[in-house]
Amino acid sequence: MSPAAELPPRSLAPDLARGAMLLVIALAHAQVLRAPGSGGALGQAVAAFHTLFVDSRGYPMFAALFGHGLVQLQQRRGAEPLRRRGRWLVVFGLLHALLLFHGDILGAYGLLSLGLLAALGRPDGPLLVRAGVWAVLGAVAFGLASLAIPDGADAVADPLVSAGYRVLGWIVATPLFAIMAAGPVLFGVWAARRRLLEQPGRHLPALRRVAVLGIAVAVVGALPLALLKAGPPASAAALASATALHTLTGYAGGLGYAALVAVLAARIGERRGLLTRALIACGQRSLSCYLAQSLAWLLLFEPYFADLGGELAPQTAAAVGFGVWALTVVLADVLRRLDRRGPAEALLRRLTHGPA
């Protein structure tokens, strides 16, 4: 019997969406290698594309998929394993920041796993209201926080000092990221109750509307920030307002991306070629692939390794981001062929549920 035949059946759309979402995450994180203002006209076009379609568009999709997964885990395992998993995600996030990368989101998802358990039992009406309120709060919080965030990460030559800075940044940023992700996580919970990703064929008209409107709203909402970045220096108030709008409409874009992948999944059905199977494998091992990306950023960014932080034109940084993502897809597919879980997934599962 083949490995695929031995595994329990899984819905295509959530795994496919996680695999595609990791490309958006890679393109966003690869910007730590970008030198602002470089690359000529092509560099400016790539930077504008990044603002319109990538920045603050990948993590809402990730958060919505995380909320979707919370519902499935609660239905299969109950509340206590979710609490244990949430606590371990906080530990994973801290170690991720200490050892690899300053842009950790695992700690925030761990906090949300612990803080939103009560919301999993609420009716849909209050759930959607809470999701909208948290979305507005997250956008405003990030708009204000952006005034204190430097433009690009600073490289530190000493590895221990660099790790210390990453941990300090993680302590400050994790609650902020949790606030920013709470809205899309709750939207993901709402979508999971309707099985929008598990049964996309039954919801195609609604999914198409969400995809078109969500992505369109995200693009329109990103235009003010893109114009401010391309023009002369703007006031702090203008930048904060544009950033808040960019973040708020990014929630719509993330949900639109997830809906678009669901539409594609309904179209693909059981016709799964090599690329589709590789993307599914990446989505099933999204935690391991996410951490593998961070290892790449550590090796490429830090001055005690390749020291490419702030050195590349935007188009080159984007190409590196695509290449890092593609490598993780290949590695995930190798693990699929070997019938192996991702190492991070296996460890988190063992810590949460025991050696069984």
UniProtKB/TrEMBL annotation:
The chain crosses the membrane at residues 88-120, 127-149, 169-190, 210-228, 248-266, 287-306, 312-332. It comes from the Bacteria. Residues 191-354 form the DUF418 domain. InterPro entries: Bact_Transport_Assoc, DUF418. Keywords: Membrane, Transmembrane, Transmembrane helix. It holds the Pfam family DUF418. The keyword Cytoplasm does not apply. This is DUF418 domain-containing protein. It comes from Nannocystis pusilla.
